[in-house]
Amino acid sequence: MKEFDIAVIGAGPGGYVAAIRAAQQGACVCLIEKDKVGGTCLNRGCIPTKALYSTAHFWQRLKHAEDHGIRIDEPSLDYTVAAERRDNIVKRLVGGIEQLLKAHKVELFRGHALIEGPGRICIKRPEVTGRIRAKNIIIATGSRSVRPKALSIDGKNVLTSREILAIKELPASLMVVGGGYIGCEFAGIFAALGTKVTVVEQLPGLLEQSDRQVVKEVEKSFKSLGVQVHTETSVERLDAKDGVVTAYLSGEKQVEAEKVLVAVGRVPNIDNLGLEDAGVETKDGAIVVDDGLRTSVPGVYAIGDATNIIQLAHVASYQAGIAVANAMGGDEKADYRVVPSAIFTLPEIGQVGLTEDQAKQQGIEVESGRFSYQASSKAQCEGETQGLVKIVADKKDGAILGAAIVGAEASSLVAEVAAAMGAGMSAHELGGKTIHAHPTLPEMIMEAAEDVAGLAVHKAGRRRDRG
Hints:
The protein is an alpha/beta fold. It has helices at about 15-25, 40-45, 45-60, 80-105, 160-165, 180-190, 210-225, 275-280, 315-325, 355-360, 375-380, 410-420, 425-430, 445-450; strands at about 5-10, 30-35, 105-110, 110-115, 120-125, 130-140, 145, 160, 175, 195-200, 230, 235-240, 245-250, 255, 260, 265-270, 280-285, 285, 300, 340-345, 350-355, 365-370, 390-395, 400-405.
């Protein structure tokens, strides 16, 4: 029975990064995956979605080509080609990860992993079973879509994000159940490509964890794209017949659509791993870990969505480094105070830290700075004038508590604020003391930071004393 220093279960953005990090430090490593490397993010989530997002954004910009003096006679969209592009991007990136694993001499086992005891793993494939030993085990099995029994998900008419990313033809109409980031991303993409879209959300508003001013910009976009939104509304049942799905909503409403996407959240994928027999503690369907990603069993670690701490691919990759360092004898602790995230709606959202409302709920007195894309010279040149930048700071000392950005390149712009927060910079240091190139979109970060004290040059307003 072959023995490894570290065995990683799951080859998503947590697992494959853990395997490579361990190999870089000289460990003998294996990676166990029953599907394709890259996990949900690469194969059925982040990447194929963003490939379609790019197509939708490009298609929207083409509609404004004449503003730039570019005349295009009757452009047309071939969704089949867009889907092929999406799939080819995924295929290339999967191949790239496989080559990286090979280059780092990570042994890749295909099959389902079952922890049989301390340092013992059984790997099952159809008609084949093997066993290995490992001094340390890192569980990185990710998450899966919630599949409410009442919504009759059949993979043909009623879909999860997995199935909708496999369709080859653009549906004429789509109903999205769930107004979180997954639902809103798909709603924007398909509406921009010409599908009639309806969004149904039980909560009072869309994207409930995001800043309300930012969400209003997405709502404006939805309205311009013809997206119908029903909030504080539940789906009581779905009936599929003759290629049409009828949704019966609360309040005796009905909606018909060719396809229905169920996007009501994701749950840790930790079933059938032998965790209970191995003594690994779980709670509310997730693996319990300490701040060093250690489970209740010595030598067993867990990272990513399996822990349900923060369901983001880049958090899983970050946790991978912590878990590997500790498995190799270190004592590192995860720090989640600065975690940027991006939502690829149209326009896109970048956010980090606390929203203004969240800070106030914690009893923190804040000052907020805002700057509009409309006031940015670069945004005007790009023809991307919808959106705003908002920075939230502690009124006491100006420490940056968070930021919310909606508009072109928001997912990239938020990285500057995250870096500033990580370095402990105040809003004044980010805005008044950091030189920003002109003309660029990042100047809006500078202006919003300066506006915390009422000192933004390109924004009319009353001067406020810096706290």
